[in-house]
Amino acid sequence: MQELSFTANRFKAKQSPLTDEHPTPTDVPQKQGISCKDNILFDSEYYTLSNEYKSIPKLDEFETILDLKAVSPLVSVLTTNSRILVYNHESCSSVTHTFEIPYSPNSYNLMPLSAIISNPLNALKPDLVVIDPISGEFQFFESIKLVPSLSVLQNVVKDRITLYNAEFLTGVQLFQENSILVTTSQKRVIEVTFKDQLGNVSIKLNQVYNNRPLISSILSKTHSISEIENSSHIVSIKTYDASPIMKSIIVLESTGRVVFINHLKGSSSFNLVAQHDMELILSNVGLRFLDFEFLKNSKIGVFLTIDLKENNLVSNVFYFENSHSVPNMISNKSVPCLSLDEEIIDPKVFSFNLEKTLLVKNDKKLIIFDPNFENLASPWVEVLALNHSLIIYSAEKLPGLNDKLFLATNEGLLTFSFKESGKSGDINGFLKEHINQYLQYNKSDGPLIFDLKETSLAIATTNIRDVLSEIYDELLENKSNASGFRSFADSNLERRVFLVKNLTAYTQRNYDIQNDEVLRTKILKSCELLALAKNFLHLNTNYSLINDSDMLDHLKIGVPLTDYLQNNTKNVLTLISKYVNYILNSGTENQVIQLSSLLKELFINSIIKLDDDVKQLLGGSSLSSVFVDHFELINNVNVITRKIYNLASETTDENVLAGYNQTLIGLSCFLYYSVNEIVEYLSTRGGSALVLFDELLTKEKDKWVHVFVVMKKQRDILPLVNKYKDFAGLSALLESMREDIQTLFESEEISEIEFANMATDVEIEFDRYFEYYGYEFAEALFSYYKQNHKVNIMLQNFDKHSVHLERFLESDLSNYSFGWIHDIMNHKVGNVSNKMIEVALEYSTSLREKKFQSSLGKLATVLQMNNSSEQNSNNLMDCYNANLSITDVQECIYYCMQELGMFSNSHALDALIDSPYIRSNNFNEFRERLKEIYFKLERKGSLDILEIVDFVSLGCFQPNILTNEVPKNGGCDSTGRIVLEIYCKTLHLLKTLTNCGNISLIVGSLSMSVLLKLFLKRIFMNRDYVPLEQIVLELEKESLNISFNDHSLMLSEDEIYTLQRRSNSQIKDYEKENRVSIS
């Protein structure tokens, strides 16, 4: 429980150092002596708050304000730690005119009490009373001058209030025209009259009330100033006219004792007519009474109490039938809009509107409500929260100004002016009005706080969300009173952009926006649409974008552009899309160039820069969805960007190129940002738009990033690349930065020291991303090097990240086509021996690669023989030898084909795939297979053993075979010898592979005997060109005894299935061929 803070400044005259929390007037920029009237801080249909006068007398160095209060609309009294100043707010001189009374602090450091007695003849010549609270001595200054005057005479009368043992004065207030009431620490009230009925100075003292505890005062030897808060004392006195001749005085003590006193005007008679113990009536002895207001017309007393155990400020409402009867309690309810953890500081209660409305001031909060609010179904309550930096020295209602409350503050005189009460407490209505008031009157340096937590109202988040959503809609649709919807379009849109950004800041402070994606998206979209409308109107004003009848007919807006943008803001993108489409399809090249520059300016200002600001307010978690339904616009912007890129590549004019570059940077940034945002936004929603934008992003993303690489503006796009975790783009940017530095050094544009420093900076950048993203980034970076044939950089520059590098190299066997270098550098020859055979078989795209990798693997195996098992080494050697044999045969076939002139010859290809064997058996699938192998062989792609057998045995290697001309006498011409060489090489290969050990890695589940039977059957069936006896001789030479009959050359179903699977396609011709008889 927080302890009650008693802040009657008259008990705190001790000089305190200046602090940031309590600035002096010298800290506040102001124009001394010049008043600022009618400065409205807040205005509603219920009340107005204005800062009517901001001027405060200039203070000396180390001078501190102790008290400040308004005594009339024109005059205030300022008490500092060294003097009292009475000043005129409306002084027109360069320095505010003051009447100054220096004083010396008393022994208890209590500041003097002062009072102003108004002068009915001249408001700027009032009387001043200054009283020392310890001694009781006072000075009466008659008709002080608050305007420049030639007179230097000042009438001063001194006198003294007699005080008892250890008694001191605690307060002073105006009573009648020429008198004041003074309260003491021993619960006495004394009237001091300064003039008689004729207006002559005449000092008289009358005791009004005495509840002095006799014993305690006799025993007291010292002034118990620090104990006044915790002891019984007078807290408030209210006076009113009971009749034209009778004055009523009501005195409230902190213990709840209420005393009614009648006073006959003009006399010294004070009669105590009634007293009541309110604490007993409330049946609560733990209360402390703080203030009260007596509503004379309705005979109601409103008492503010606090329960120190609960820190709860309560409004206790009693009905007083007359001053003698026991009060009847009407209600007993906590003051609204105050939370239990709110500190209770100097609370005051006031009545307005002919006593129908109450205002409670607690510290920096003003609460306005109906006295009977707890009995209403939907009570009307308003709350004004003042800035925590504002110091309120006093709150006073002045005579004759019943519906005004004057707050004397360190920022001048604030005036609260009441108008009328509200009738309903609808929470949504309150919220909407409160938030709209924030939009209209909030200022960063203003005295008001509009945050909902300051109202201490229990408001459901659904209510807050609904109202915020409604206000955003009104701002977008130009229906908000705060936007000035009747003003010119440019100022209207400017104002609405400003308001929606302010409302976003307010939303972030007052609503859990992080858990409301729908509202976050709506906020960002509203900001973007308003900014687009504002900036498009600005561009049209400056460049006359829409200026001909054909364009207006195409746009079909039906109203002036200014009206359309102001009142149809949500459709602004449709308008922009039509405009871009029109220029792109109907405009000249110069118009397209101008359009690109304008779009760059429009989108950078309306989307990129604005989104950055708004997203910071929303916690950075929102996604821009404003272009979701405008794929055509985004695509057209991309087309324009490509056009400008091509123009930039062709121009040699440096000035023109600079303009193109700026445009490219802006549009590429916009496209990269907006498309990434849309894809991420739609990724959880799906739909056809996602497909379109995702395809565009996949296709164009690298080009957008490349623009920044070309322009050497990599760091400009890095934040966005990081945001979307585009590691491929990040890799391209970082590597280009490294290459740029290398280029500068090689061209001698930077010194060696500069190169070293810049290179170190880039290396640190690399390291930062490695550390932050780990292997996710490393994988993308190394993949970038692999795809862009920069593996040398990858293998040489990342020793400190070798763990990531080795993981990447081992993640895919294809990486070992260059990963073997890393193993060689790290003396891991065994890895090369074991892995290279698979790389050569599976990932060699060319004959050259396959031969090199097989040779390298064989060499590594030889070097590793002493470090591995003999069987493993022999198996690997067999595999490498077999693979090299296959490459030798493929090379032979290639050169033979080249010698026969069968490459790049469409007739030769037609003859090749239309051999008599294929043609006579209608093997159409074999035709296609031969064609695929032919093109693979032509580009020196790597062939496997089955492809070699199929190509050699099925193809026709002599175009004139179609004429069925066979050499006579069993001879062979030069072509025949070449073809025979191909056959013999293939036969020898099959024999070699048959005699090899474990070569399953090379041939898989294929049997060499199957391939041999397949090969011989086809050669036999194609024997019309190469004499069969030549083949038989070759078989004998290779010691291969094969019978040429159907039974011996027949394949099983399993063997046919193996062939089909090995060829990676279900070729039915293998089955069909097996049924062909050779007889």
TrEMBL record:
The lineage of its organism: Eukaryota, Fungi, Dikarya, Ascomycota, Saccharomycotina. Residues 13-32 are annotated as: Disordered. It comes from Pichia kudriavzevii (Yeast). Keywords: Nucleus, Transport. It comes from the Eukaryota. This is Uncharacterized protein. The keyword DNA-binding does not apply. It is found in: Nucleus. GO terms for molecular function: structural constituent of nuclear pore.
